[in-house]
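TEACHING EXERCISE
Course module: macromolecular assemblies
Task: Read the component lines below, then compare them to the predicted structure of the full complex.
Student: A.B.
Group: 4
Components provided:
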Amino acid sequence: MKFIDEFRAPELIAKAGKEIRRLAEPNRHYRIMEVCGGHTHAIYRFGLKDLLPSNVELIHGPGCPVCVLPMGRIDDGLSLAAQQDFIFAAFGDMMRVPGTHGSPLEYKARGMDVRIVYSPADALKLARSNPEKHVMFFAIGFETTAPSTALTLMRAKAEGLRNFSVFCNHVTIIPAIRAILDSPDMRLDGFVGPGHVSTVIGCRPYDWIAKDEGKPVVVSGFEPLDILQSIVMLLRQLRKGEAKVENQYKRVVPWEGNRAALRAMAEVFELRPISNGAAWGSSRNPRSKFARAMRSGTLSSASRFLVCGLPTPKRHNAARC
Amino acid sequence: MCLAIPGKIVEMDPQNAHLAVVDVVGVRRKVDLGLLQDEPPVPGDWVLIHVGFAMGKISEAEAVDQMQTLTMLGEAEAAMQEVRGYGLENAEQDESAQRWKQ
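Instructor-supplied answer key:
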């Protein structure tokens, strides 16, 4: 396998751009939301907006699990880990995200045992090799990471490990989309559905968006051509007055998702709405209040410190992704 | 974390049925296969990895495409850093990780 630093299939990209301009009706303004931060990243990086006519507008969705994390969650996690003989373990993405009294890295500088892990399995390994300490894994992410946290907790329970816990900040994508659609000043025509989240949840969870809300959804890959093709598929539906869920990313996303991952999440987590006034999404829509849904671990032996739904006074504003 | 990393299963871990050695562009690390228990992959299969867990089986062609996409998005280095970090208890202080970062 080798890296190739080129735009693939430039002729197909030009063709897709042309098809978008053909399909977009000139007297109509289209507002399409890409839900996933990975898509937002690709749209900017490849300048895909320049390929779209001015009446096809892309609206950025809730996207990034670090950006939507309220500052209060970091404060709560760090204050728990400030106890004696605790190890605070988290992904590198979390290390510079500020809480009220500093980021995990700053706490580390002040003497807290803070470790970067790249997998929840490695946080569990830390617990195995430090039996005299308590390892708290600060879990973040949408459905791409939540099943791994779930399986790790199941493994901890099976092993009878008592010195491992998860501070659960996982969020789930469907309530986020629901909140976007419930927002009175948010008018959208359709959604570019997340790619890798859909590998886990499949395409069925989006059915209600098409059936009840009348908005098309196209689950999309991350290449420029994927995203443009997804916009073509959305515009085709909108032109015909249809609203259905389509899968542009069939080569990776099975319609039913990953059932084993869904089972692990269902066994370990429960959905918990929390309302903290955190505003997600477009800054043009600052008043939208979202009920974030949080999954909380329920394996009491393995997860002793599940602090979900605490008041979260502030939202950090330093995340740059 | 959110973007998947493609890898090829090299061999199963004889000590641990749910682990396998996976090759990601020449870097070999152990990855958890527990979330693919409904259709367990075998050596030679390609998988998409998130945070040390294989999350879906894919074709070789898709694996190449996905690595290319990560490269085009400027995320390939971060992805490789993640892969190199698997299994390291404190990757930040690990010598090999430090060397790689330089």
